[in-house]
Design brief:
Length: 64
């Protein structure tokens, strides 16, 4: 891996997400879309959905 790119956004959960994550009404989710690169080529993409009341986003991405 040579790089990681993450896009972070928030929105209200759909009904399936609310049930799966056991989220009470009114709690948004944080969506992280992560792309992992080898040089200029994307080799992995992941979408992570987390209840916003259970997460702290703290980043350090050092791939050297």
């Amino acid at each position: 891996m040579t790089a990681v790119r993450e896009q972070v956004r928030a929105r209200m959960p759909n009904s399936a997400e609310s049930a799966t994550l056991r989220i009470p009404g009114g709690v948004p989710v944080v969506i992280i879309t992560r792309q992992t690169y080898v040089e200029d080529r994307v080799v992995e993409v992941a979408e992570i959905t987390i209840p916003s009341d259970r997460v702290s986003l703290d980043y350090r991405i050092d791939l050297t």
